[in-house]
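Morning F.,

Quick status update on the modeling queue. The single chain you submitted on Monday has been processed. Sequence for confirmation:
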Amino acid sequence: MVKLNRIYTRTGDDGTTGLVDGSRLPKHALRMEAIGTVDEANAALGFALRKLSRNPADAVFRIQNDLFDLGADLATPAGPEEDFTPSAMVLRIVASQVTWLEDQIDALTNILEPLTSFILPGGNEAAARLHLARTAARRAERAMTALAQEEPTNPAALQYINRLSDYLFVLGRAANNDGKADIKWVPGANR
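Structure tokens below.
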């Protein structure tokens, strides 16, 4: 369990921040960009939660907790031979977290109006907030894939962030009267 006695430590005043293994990185490093954008996606989900009913709110709350797990995973650099298996000392995203998201996506997709066009991000306020969270999740995915090009990164973590934006897309559609109130893109409408 994490215990925070003080919020400020002054250790980051030199432009670095600490990782789980005790090493320090510049705050602008790829790893820190990935952690920060995951945090941003989590905050956007907190904003969306304010407009969600009980059932999707419970799922989003679970995802927010998973995003803290994801941040911890990213904050724990892997050794060259690591297989990304979690342990008592290392928190990693695991396949079952990805599968849970896939199950949620499938369940929502079954109740949605079929897509006949791309849709504009928006609709009612809950859907608009979910689409904003979706774009933050996509930005986190871009940051994580950039990190993965340079350093070992948990494949399950990459899968999780990819599925998250898919989930937020279908949840946004569900918030728009199960897709019936989606705003369809009309290509070239304003030419």
